[in-house]
Structures
1.
Amino acid sequence: MHRLIRAVPLMVFSVANLAAQAPAAQAPAAQAPAAQAPAAQAPAAGSRSAGTGPLVEFEMMTWPEVKAAIEGGKTTALVYTGGTEQRGPQNVNGGHTLMGKATVRAIALTLGNAIALPVLPYTPNEANAALPGTIGLTTELLSAILERIAQQAIKTGFTNVVIMGDHGGGQPNAYVVVARKLDSVYAPEGKHVYFCDQVYKTANAAFDDYLKSQNMPVSSHAGIPDTSEMLYLGLDLGWVRPDQIPTAVQDREHPNGIQGDARPSTKELGRKIFDMKVDYAVKQIQSMVGQK
């Protein structure tokens, strides 16, 4: 009798448990249509900063993923430098680094055989208490860091290392010297180190020409190029203070960090300069690697 009494709760529990599990067993059938969704693809031009597509960011990969990627042909390491400096009252201080992360990721995706190493957030510059947003390195420190990173990338298994940057400090001298020095060391082993200058110098010059063709003012630091690109890539991420743009123009009597006039900045102009940087860099890298 005691056995029967003890068995009844067990039977009730079993029935309840089976009932609870029944919907779960049917879940795969109910979710079947979702399985038909297309696989994520690399973002198209103009949206290449989106967080979809293949793994190409070293810091977001595991070591087995890096190893498999290199063995699968992703043998080019992209070393990109950003920077931390004031960018006027309308843009956040980390603009160079934030834009750099989006740019180098897009370059890696477009190349198809590259992995982007973590963007270096400091480059040659000098702090200023009057405009407190800048933390800079010396050129000598940058050179030493670039050299070490490139050496480590080659030791990791990459056969090509490309260094480039979003900030003018150190360009081209530090980058050129490091690339030439290391390339002469590793070339006999079939490994190479390059400096890609077109992502910065050539792309910015081409964008200035475009602004002139549209009768728009050419500006440099914290002007139309920077502000527009940050609007395009990070308006919804808090990279820009939109309420400050109507007055974002150089003030010679009371310096505000802007060189030129950022007031005409738009997301559309930001897309144009972003795509220019990516396109010029990809073509130059393909040309350099192909020559070797």
Note: Helices lie at 2-30, 63-71, 95-111, 139-156, 173-186, 198-213, 224-234, 267-291.
2.
Amino acid sequence: MQWLMDYFGRIPSSHRSLILVGGIMFFWLLEEALPLFHFKYQKWKHAGVNLFFTFTTILVNFPLAFILVQSSNWAVENHFGILYLIHDWPLWSQAVTGLLLLDLIGAWAAHWIQHKVKFLWRFHIVHHADRFVDTTTANRHHPGESLIRFIFTTLAILITGAPMWLVFLYQSLSVILSQFNHANIVLPAWLNAGLSLLFVTPNMHHIHHHYVQPYTDSNYGNIFSVWDHLLGTFKKLDSQKIVYGLDTHLKAEENNRISNLLQIPFQKYRSPTEENFKKQ
């Protein structure tokens, strides 16, 4: 356990970049070998749009990173947060508890509230409007949403009192699991059945990207699936019945052009169509 603390406590920026780029490359190749859907699209052009938003996410988070560091250092120095209350537990159990809570507050809760608050949903539409969900979709977030997620991550750090080594471990797992569960692959039923009891799998998260409710409002998890199971937001759907995108933004010029995607949060709000609800 000590080596994990030492490594993530001093993880170089180059290693964090390698996790991001290496993950995309690995799952990109895996999609070619074991695709769920044989999309008829220009994969490189599609990736270009999503990588643009990956870059904007980095631009938003990089100058604000010092806030995360200061928040963590303050919590640790002042014995603030849930982890301080269980400081006499074995280190491994503190780490697992911390990861679970960081995922609950920083990812699940942030995701859930973006679906429930119309103003926040406007920014999240950019992520859901992707009609060809693959591993690059994982990082397709409007700059406004990147800021919203940053705020929730900071809140999660303060509530848990997580030290920076645990924050970096959480962020690394979050990047890899998000790329994994968005990848255009499907796991064998037997493997998914066991793995999805604890972790979010592609089979599970793809349902969240189905183009109509109530599926859009389900399976919010990023790393751990336990929160959806416990909080009643878990749903199942045959992978072959999934249609990606949103019923309000099905036109290519709306969901695949960077200029329009950046403007979506400020355009007139569109309610989900009753016709598409009836099809379900």
Note: The chain has one domain: 13-278.
